Amino acid sequence: MVDSSKTKSKLLPSSSSSGMIKRLAAVPLLVLLAGLIFEPIKPQPPKICGTANGPPVTSNRTKLNDGRHVAYVEFGVPREKAKNKIIFIHGFDSCRYDTLKVSQELLEELSIYLVGFDRPGYGESDPYPKKTVKTIATDIEEMADNLKLGPKFYVIGFSMGGEAVWSVLKYIPHRLAGAALLGPVANYWWSGFPANVTEEAWNAQLPADKWVVWVAHHFPWLTNWWNSQKYFPSSSVITHDVRVFSPSDLQVLHKWGGPARAAYLGQIVQQGNHESLHRDVIVGFGSWDFSPLDLENPFPNNEGSVHLWHGTEDLIVPVHMSRYIAQQLPWITYHELPTAGHMFLLGEGMGDTIVRSLLGLY
C-alpha cells in the first residue's frame, strides 16, 4: 500500500491559499480571541422534530432500535409488489425529497420501488451526535428491514451520500443487489492514494473549502465556529457560492431549484446546522477506519454490480480520487462524463440512464 504520510503533510490550506494566510496574519490577535470567545464554539442543541421546541413531524418515519426516527418518502410501485428496491442517499445540504429523478414510466416498467430518506439531523430524521462512518450503513440496513425490503436491495448515493455508499459496501455488502456512487465526496486523508493524486484533488478546491475541510479533519470541535464566523470564508456550498458550479452545472441548476424545491427548502436544516451540515463534514473528512481502496468485490460471481459516475469538470468534488479508485478496483464500472460537473444527475434522462445501468440493462 502506498505510504500517504507525505501526502497528509502537504494537505494544508496554505498550499494555494497565500491570500488567506496573509489575511490571517494581518488580523490582530485580539480580534481572533474575541471571535473565539464570543462566537458559538459550542453549537446550540438541535431542535428535534416532534418535541416541544422543535418543528412538527409531517412525513412518514420509521423508528430504529436506539429510538431514533428516520423520515422517508416513497416513489414508484408499492414496495410489497416491487421487484427492484432502491434506497437513495442524499447529498450535503439536502433531504429525502432530493432523490434521483427517475421517470414514472421506467419505475413502472422495471417494477421499481424507490425510497429517499433524511440522513441524521437533516429534514425530519433525528440528529445523531454519535454518528460515525459505520452508522449510516447500519441505519440503512435497519430502515430496510423495518420497511420489509427483503434480503437484497440497491443503493444509490450522490455527493456526500455517494461517499456513504463506501460505508455500505464495507459494512453490509451482503445486503446489496447493486450500488451506484454519483460524484462521491472523497476524504483527502484516506490511505493508499499517491501524493500526486490527493494533492491534485486537494488543490482543485476553492481556498475557502480547503479551510473548511482542514478544520473539520484536524479540529472538529471548531467546525461550528468556523462555519458560523464572519472573519473568513466558510464552505462555498453552505454559502451557495456559484463559483463551485461548472458551466454545465449552471445549465441544469434551475432543475435543482424552482417552486418544487422551495416548498421543502426550509425543512432541510430546520433542526440546526450543526447536526446536519457540520456533522457531515466532521464525519466525512474525519479519520476513517478503512479506505475505499481496501474494499473487496461484493459481487464475485457477477450477481450484481457497482457503478461510479463522475464528471470531469466537477468543481465541488474534483474527479481525481474517483478516477484513481476506479483504476485500482477493476470490479467497479466507471463512468467518467466529459464536460459534466457535479450536478450531472440533473441532465435530461440521466436518472433513467443511471438506474438502467445499475439494473444491468445497458
Automatic annotation (TrEMBL):
Q: Which Gene3D superfamilies match?
A: alpha/beta hydrolase
Domain AB hydrolase-1, by residue range, is: 86-346
Any single Pfam family the record assigns to this protein: Abhydrolase_1
Q: Which domain of life is it from?
A: Eukaryota
Under the heading InterPro entries, the entry gives: AB_hydrolase_1, AB_hydrolase_fold
- Would you tell me the protein name for this molecule? Alpha/beta-Hydrolases superfamily protein
**The organism of origin for this protein:** Rhynchospora pubera
